[in-house]
Amino acid sequence: MGRGSRQSARVAGFRQGAQRPRFARGGLEPPGGEDGIVSDFLETVLSRRRDRIRAEYGGLSRADLERLACCARPPRDFAAALRDRSDVAVIAEVKKASPSAGPIAPDCEASKQALHYQDGGAAAISVLTEPEFFGGSWTDLSDVADAVDVPVLCKDFVVDPLQLYAARGHGADAVLLMVSVLGHRTGDFADIAETLGLTALVEVASVDEFAIALDARSKLIAVNSRNLRTLEVDTDRAREIMLRAKGFEVTLVAASGIKTRADVEAAAGAGAWAVLVGETLMRASFPEDVLAVLTGVPTSAFEDD
Q: Which of 32, 167, 214, 265 has fewest C-beta within 10 Å?
């Protein structure tokens, strides 16, 4: 099933191991050790991610970056894996921790978990590469990309084009771009991703962000029900966004809050062609059995009323 090792072909310094994230009372430990969840999680993680990326990769030349991206095997078609099917596609996520849940499976071997997902019928695999709050790493991405045959999504807080080169070089076929992070630069980042062979999955969490995604000519849009500034979940808002997408030529992904088959059915009814599932699968003793329940839901997106 594997693609074989490509580690020797990668530019030295890009295979960074994850640092174990810090958690307090099952959740995020805020900067400076204060009690409670930070008031604006998004600003906190972006600041740290920006500094870390520049420290690790800022010294690489453009030629180094291009060599890294060129070393990867040809990209697999992420969008087709979601769209070219009669049932709702499941993107199964490797997520070792999260700020809201704390440690989930910190010692999980990413490639083995991904193979369980593939065997269970996942259409694609999502891999967290943010190390401090989600326990991810570039190594996890590389290992998963080497192990599976389905497309692989790099899920991170992309703040710098350097991350796009790194994602492609480590085997990603697609990359998450968050409108809440990039704003009106989303289209520029999507263009860079396309030149590298990456499919851009553009994430939105509000009607205004959905409008920006459309302005960026995004065709693959993930709707997140979680507000990343407060970490609160609002499924009604997410459903409103998906219903507003009716009539636009976009493929929708329900990107959070999916735990049961009923959740998948509700997402399909709102227009989703795919769902992303992380924590539920990571906590399952037999993720293949969970996927057997979540898969097989017929798509109903954009059907006439």
A: 32
Q: Pairing mode, if any, of strands 174-178 and 102-103?
A: unpaired
11 versus 247: the higher-pLDDT residue is 247
pLDDT over 90 (residue 196): yes
User: What are the residue boundaries of the structural domains of the chain, listed by start?
Assistant: 67-294
What tokens were used for 129?
Answer: 């590469």
Alpha-carbon span 116 to 118, nearest angstrom: 6
Q: Which residue's entry shows tokens 């009607």? A: 207
pLDDT of residue 44 exceeding 80: yes
> What b/e readout covers 54-71, taking b as 16+ CB neighbours within 10 angstroms?
eeebeebeeebbebbbeb
Task: Tell me the C-alpha distance between 178 and 203, whole Å.
Answer: 5
Work out the average pLDDT over 168-182.
96
What is the CATH topology of the domain spanning 67-294?
TIM Barrel (3.20.20)
Look at residues 19, 148, 151 and name the one whose alpha carbon lies nearest to residue 96: 19
The single residue listed with the structure tokens 């289209």 is 187
Angle between helices 235-244 and 207-215 (to 10 degrees): 40
Q: Does the pLDDT value for residue 231 go beyond 80?
A: no
pLDDT tens digits, residue range 33-42? 333 333 477 8
Q: Quote the tokens at residue 240.
A: 């409103």
Which one, of 70, 29, 82, 283, lies nearest residue 196 by Cα? 70
Strand, helix or coil for residue 99? coil
CA distance 175 to 199: 6
**pLDDT of res. 3:** 41
Q: Report DSSP letters for 233-279, one per residue.
A: B-HHHHHHHHHHTTTSS-EEEE-S---SHHHHHHHHHHTEEEEEE-H
pLDDT (0 to 100) of residue 115: 98
